[in-house]
């Protein structure tokens, strides 16, 4: 409680409050615009937050994360164009209600369900993160090495349709992370005599290039193909009441509560994420519903299940990030870079020496969900007009912020060149369906991965297997990694056997 009281004093400082409001508004904006989403938004915030306090910077990022997931539901409901993958299930019934002239009512249910789910995820973060942080005190170099392996396998497994492409991206990130000085022996590696590479490649310009500049290039491509605007009439379907009558809404409460619990748990599981939480809760709601025939034809229950689940998953996804340094999605992978940039190392230190700042971030996440609900109910018509913003205006803004922010990091044109290079690389990677998140995570985790592995070899004194047997936590982690790697194959085998039996 002393830490929470101290956290409140930090959160109510002007810089944190301004960061909170800006994060919520920016998140709704990037969520509404299809193709951007929380990942690109957080990447743009990295250079902007460079001079901010750690609490204010991370509060702004987590606020953008949760409101970005919610923002995608607005266009999903009003024009059948999900701003994020997590809102795809919402589009099924939301747009049907919009066509029936009940778009405002559908957005109201989206908003309330998202707020309840997000607040539940924030409470789960407050309750379960500290015990896991204390558990990390028992970790040695071997455990940290295995956790970094787990993070790489998780993000590679969940990124895109091909695990092989995900692993390739992660391996490329690890290779780029080795550029510079050897962390153990202090010799130069892969610098090729270039002095600026002696300190390694800063992952911040890489983040901005891969997630922001590459997205701007994709928007340019969409413009060339005639996809510059999304919605012809931004006021279509915005009629009627903001919320359904109480006698209808009270029937949605059990669905919202169940979806919040399930969504937070799914978010906690690395590689699951908000989109899986959304679809799983949608299918569960249909199975438990007394009127399953309404699903697909304008069901408020389906909307409530999807939105409560995906926003609860945001809070769940932050638990392994802050406690173990395991990001379960591209957005949290970028946030991991933001944590390290501000000197916040995931693990026990966040809940002891840096506890007040950590709890300020958690309370800011809770407050951002409440503020998101207020803005969502009052400014829906104004936010949805962003869909009319042509790419000819949007693209220069993204490119300008990317270049200015990157240069401001170290006042270096080298960083800008690196950002542009990785922006072009990210564009071609997305064209060939190679996910960029594993590459970034590989660079971020490289030092942890390599240095702890080599320290573990030193501690093992030549008998790594014997040393492993004395570390029960390491054995558990190895089993978890094996299950993570083999689970997709096991699922495919089981599905194939069931389909053969049905035939």
UniProtKB/TrEMBL annotation:
InterPro entries: DUF112_TM. The chain crosses the membrane at residues 12-33, 40-65, 106-129, 141-159, 261-282, 321-345, 357-377, 389-407, 413-429, 436-453, 473-494. Keywords: Membrane, Transmembrane, Transmembrane helix. Residues 17-441 form the DUF112 domain. This is DUF112 domain-containing protein. It comes from [Clostridium] citroniae WAL-17108.
């Amino acid at each position: 409680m002393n830490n929470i009281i101290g956290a409140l004093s930090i959160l109510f400082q002007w810089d944190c409050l301004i960061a909170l409001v800006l994060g919520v508004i920016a998140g709704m904006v990037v969520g509404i615009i299809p193709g951007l989403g929380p990942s690109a938004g957080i990447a743009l915030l990295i250079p902007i937050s460079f001079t901010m306090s750690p609490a204010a910077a991370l509060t702004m990022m987590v606020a953008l994360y949760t409101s970005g997931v919610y923002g995608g539901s607005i266009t999903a409901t009003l024009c059948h164009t999900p701003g994020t993958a997590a809102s795809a299930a919402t589009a099924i019934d939301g747009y049907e209600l919009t066509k029936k002239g009940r778009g405002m009512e559908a957005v109201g249910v989206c908003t309330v369900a998202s707020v309840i789910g997000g607040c539940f995820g924030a409470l789960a973060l407050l309750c379960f993160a500290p015990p896991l942080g204390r558990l990390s005190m028992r970790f040695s170099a071997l455990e940290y090495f295995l956790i970094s392996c787990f993070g790489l396998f998780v993000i590679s497994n969940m990124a895109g349709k091909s695990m092989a492409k995900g692993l390739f991206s992660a391996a490329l990130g690890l290779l780029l992370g080795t550029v510079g000085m050897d962390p153990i022996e202090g010799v130069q590696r892969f610098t090729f005599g270039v002095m600026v590479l002696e300190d390694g490649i800063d992952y911040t310009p890489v983040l901005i290039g891969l997630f922001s500049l590459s997205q701007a290039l994709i928007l340019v491509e969409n413009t060339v193909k005639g996809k510059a605007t999304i919605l012809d009439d931004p006021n279509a379907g915005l009629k009627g009441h903001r919320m359904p009558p109480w006698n209808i809404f009270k029937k949605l409460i059990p669905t919202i509560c169940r979806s919040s619990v399930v969504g937070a748990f799914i978010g906690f599981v690395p590689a699951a994420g908000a989109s899986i939480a959304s679809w799983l809760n949608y299918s569960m709601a249909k199975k438990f519903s007394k009127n399953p025939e309404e699903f697909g034809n304008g069901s408020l229950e389906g909307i409530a299940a999807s939105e409560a689940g995906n926003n609860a998953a945001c809070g769940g996804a932050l638990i392994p990030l802050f406690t173990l340094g395991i990001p379960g999605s591209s957005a949290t992978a970028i946030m991991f870079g933001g944590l390290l940039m501000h000197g916040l190392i995931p693990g026990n230190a966040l809940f002891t020496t840096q506890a007040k700042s950590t709890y300020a971030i958690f309370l800011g996440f809770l407050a951002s969900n409440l503020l998101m609900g207020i803005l969502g109910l009052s400014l829906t018509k104004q936010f949805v007009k962003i869909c009319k913003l042509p790419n000819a205006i949007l693209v220069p803004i993204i490119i300008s912020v990317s270049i200015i922010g990157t240069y401001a990091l170290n006042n270096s044109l080298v960083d800008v060149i690196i950002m542009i290079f990785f922006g072009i690389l990210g564009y071609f990677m997305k064209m060939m369906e190679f996910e960029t998140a594993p590459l970034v995570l590989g660079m971020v985790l490289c030092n942890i991965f390599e240095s702890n592995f080599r320290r573990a070899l030193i501690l093992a004194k030549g008998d790594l297997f014997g040393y492993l047997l004395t570390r029960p936590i390491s054995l558990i982690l190895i089993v978890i990694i094996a299950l993570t790697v083999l689970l997709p194959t096991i699922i495919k085998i089981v599905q194939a056997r069931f389909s053969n039996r049905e035939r």
